[in-house]
Write a structure and sequence with these properties.
By secondary structure, the protein is mostly beta strands. It has one domain: TolB, C-terminal domain (Neuraminidase). The chain is 11% helix and 39% strand. Strands 1-19-18-17-16 form a 5-stranded antiparallel β-sheet, with helices on one face. Strands 11, 12, 13, 14 and 15 form a 5-stranded antiparallel β-sheet that branches. It has a 4-stranded antiparallel β-sheet with strand order 2-22-21-20, with no helix packed on it. Strand 16 and strand 17 (241-247) form a beta hairpin. The longest helix is centred in the N-terminal third of the chain and has 26 residues, at 8-33. It is found in: Cell membrane. The chain crosses the membrane at residues 9-29. Belongs to the YjiK family.
């Protein structure tokens, strides 16, 4: 009688069944761990102005943006600048139709993860922390960028960037390792500032998100909720900081003291891999998501007004 190891085809089947079993078990655990509640307002004095149960619009983007990795508001209503994580091209898209309005080549192909702007100055974040800066002009299709280097490297995997008008700086979030990890703050995910006046990065986080606090809010127990930030934006009305993470499909809102004000769990059916977030001047919230084999999307949420107390 042949022994098991003498039957390579049977061994392959056994290994495949084991792998499938582990995968199914992981999926079941993940599903069971997701709480029934998906929206948590922590600060009693804070009104979260967006309803994720009623997205105003979800549009599919051109195939060139299947791997959309960042976006920021354009100059006109319903227009967004976007990048994807392979080509050194800037896309101007219509948030209503999803169609491309303009394309600008700014550098060679690299791993680009985030984009923001201050007036007509565009800043594109590379995964190693380098920032590519150029002045946008409607009439040009090729605008060479200037590279601004930071202390980040590939091990940090920087993915989110936005302009902060409060401090006249760029806010940057690493997805992986912190710049100067501290043993006593292992549960914190840092938000770093790059001063546009001095062109220098603060090596210590200016703000942070505490994963243990998020876990206490979501699970109601002393357990971390793993966050790997993929996008960041500043609310133009409150100056609160919005951070999204594709790992965990979560949105966290913090104030300038790094206190959590709101937590929102994003639906995977819509936000397969959320990586971009931005606001319009009038308060619309835009979130982009990669397609993961399908079309990239941009979702639009209209800002709601706080309820008034009728006498």
């Amino acid at each position: 009688m042949n022994k098991l190891w003498e039957k390579p085809n049977l061994i392959s089947v056994v290994i495949l069944l084991i792998v499938l079993g582990i995968g199914i078990t992981y999926v079941m655990i993940t599903v069971n761990q997701r709480p029934e509640t998906e929206s948590f307002t922590v600060d009693d004095d804070y009104f979260f102005p967006y309803n994720f149960d009623r997205l105003d619009r979800v549009v599919k983007l051109p195939s060139e943006l299947n791997e959309i990795s960042g976006l920021c508001a354009g100059f006109n209503p319903n227009e967004l600048f976007a990048i994807q994580d392979e080509e050194g091209e800037l896309f101007l898209v219509n948030s209503v139709s999803g169609k491309t309005i303009n394309r600008v080549r700014f550098d060679k192909n690299r791993d680009y993860e985030g984009i923001t702007r201050r007036d007509r100055e565009i800043y594109v974040l590379e995964t190693d922390g380098d920032i590519h800066q150029f002045t946008y002009q409607d009439s040009l299709s090729d605008i060479p960028a200037t590279k601004l280097e930071t202390d980040f490297s590939y091990r940090n995997d920087t993915e989110g960037i936005c302009y902060d008008p409060v401090t006249n700086s760029l806010l940057i979030v690493p997805k992986e390792q912190e710049l100067n990890p501290a043993a006593d703050n292992e549960s914190r995910r840092g938000i770093y500032t790059f001063d546009l006046a001095t062109k220098r990065l603060n090596p210590q986080p200016t703000y942070y998100i505490d994963q243990l606090q998020v876990g206490q809010i979501v699970f109601g127990s002393n357990r971390e909720y793993i966050i790997k930030p993929s996008g960041i934006a500043v609310d133009p009305f409150t100056n609160d900081i919005f951070v999204i993470s594709s790992v965990g499909n979560i949105l966290v809102v913090i104030d300038r003291d790094s206190q959590i004000k709101h937590v929102e769990l994003l639906e995977k059916a819509t936000f397969t891999q959320p990586e971009g977030i931005t606001f319009s001047e009038t308060g619309e919230l835009y979130i982009s998501s990669e397609g993961r084999g399908g079309r990239g999307i941009v979702a639009t949420l209209t800002r709601m007004q706080p309820p008034t107390n009728e006498q």
